Each structure stands twice: as C-alpha cells, then as structure tokens.
C-alpha cells in the first residue's frame, strides 16, 4: 500500500482525513504530539491496524524525518489553531517553524507532495465577497492568519526551488464530530447552563461560511489528486454564509428552547467578537468545483448538523 503521513492526524480535521485516506486504501501514519488532538479520535483506526501513531512534535526534525521516509505524500495539519490574540511566539514555533521543519524533512527524505491546512484568515478583511483565490493583496489581521500565509509562502518556495507539489486548502469554518472549538459549542455550553439567556460576542452581524467536515475532507483529497504539479491554493467552503445571530437561532431550535434572550457584548472594532476576528468571510469555491468537487451541505445545514452532534456529545458527558 502507498504510505502517507498526516501531521496533526489525531486532531479534528486530521482524524477525519485519516479515516478517509485509510478507506481509500492508503497506509496511514499519524504524527501528533496530542496537545490538541487525542488518541480517542483515531482509536478505531489504530485498533484495526489501518493507521499507526507516532507521538512527536513537528519541530523535532530527527523523529519527523524517520516518519516521513518512504511516504508518498505529507498532509500537514499540525498547528496551533487559536485565532484569538495569544503569544506570537507560539504561532511562529508551531506554525511557521514547524512547517519549515516538515518541509526540510520531506526534502531530505525525497518526498515531494505536501498538502497543507491553511485558512480563510489569510485574506483578512477582503473587500471582495465571495473572495477568490487570486484576491490580493493578502493582509491578515491576526497573527494566526499571518502564520498561515507565511506557511503558504514557504511551501510555494519549496515547490519552485526543490520540485515539490504543494496544495494549500484555505478552509472556511469546518464543523462536525470531534470539534472541540467554535461558536456552536460555545453557544450550546452556555445554554446548557442558562437556557434563558445567551451571551453573544460582538454585534451578532459577523457573517461567515461554514462547511461540514466530510465536505472539507473530500475537497482536500480532490485537490491533492487533481493537482498535477506546482503550487495551488484552493478555497474550501460552502456556497453561502451565515451570521452569528442566525447560528444562535439554529442552536436554540436544535435544543428545543424558547424565549431565549440574546445579549450582545457589542464587540470591538465595529462589532467583531475579538481583535483579529474577520467580520465577513465568504469564499468563492469555483476553482475547486472545476475539479469535480462540490459541498453537499450549505452553511445553515452544516451548522444544524454540527449543533445536533455537539449537543448529543455534551449531554452525554453531563449525564
């Protein structure tokens, strides 16, 4: 079988990607330090022998090099995922420097295919919506977004200097089982504690695209298989966008609640949830659709599906 390496493969998106790759007949090697992911996410894969787990930090060259050797491709999904203000050093170390180590390990192991989990945050406050991949100049408004854009630049340089094939997936907000972050979980957690009042960061008008995890994983594999050479960036999102207030209404509906009072904090910088929060994000996905992929669910359907899954999971933990 063809072997592939998935950094961050025990995380949210990474674990679903590993399942899909294993189902497609690939020998899957997961490289993860388990700081964000967990063995529970990939327990079935490990038990069945469909995947193997190497516990390690992507900044550790020697360990990563041994894992990369003999692989057809590297799906690089390990990163610090915190978009809000944090320590810039963390983003540099885990995102930028970590990506450099991954690329160097690949170069010295003569592995040429890299598929990178980028982000819609590379666009910053785009003036064109839906935003196409060739929009510019790219001006990230968070250190996280800047680190993702820097990683794309590194990959592009290795493509043109060392003959790599590079694919960058600029994901919208991905939702689904195993997600431990995001506004949907935040709302459900708050409403389980107080079913009468919901605190909403910002003015509630923040509007973004959401995509179901299976759609995102299928897009990832399609982009890798259909990109023959060079460096290509692809937007991965749904056809529409949805506001934070609409998400709150869907969550309330899924939970079967009534007469919930929404309390808006007002936010910062024109109603954003936090400094660095992109208020409006809607990706143009025509480029990926031309490769034969299209999302099965729109943003509202993805949010509703995710709310049901997260509610069931949180309720189970409480009981």
Question: What does this entry look like structurally?
Answer:
The chain is of the alpha/beta class and about 325 residues long. The protein folds into 2 domains: about 5-175 and about 210-235, Rossmann fold (3-Layer(aba) Sandwich), CATH 3.40.50.720; about 175-210 and about 240-280 and about 295-319, UDP-galactose 4-epimerase, domain 1 (Alpha-Beta Complex). It is about 40% helix and about 20% strand. The chain is built from 10 helices and 14 strands. The protein has a 7-stranded parallel β-sheet, with helices on both faces. Helix 2 (about 45-50) links the parallel strand 2 (about 25-30) and strand 3 (about 50-55). Helix 4 packs parallel to helix 5 and helix 8 crosses helix 10. The longest helix has 22 residues, at about 90-110.
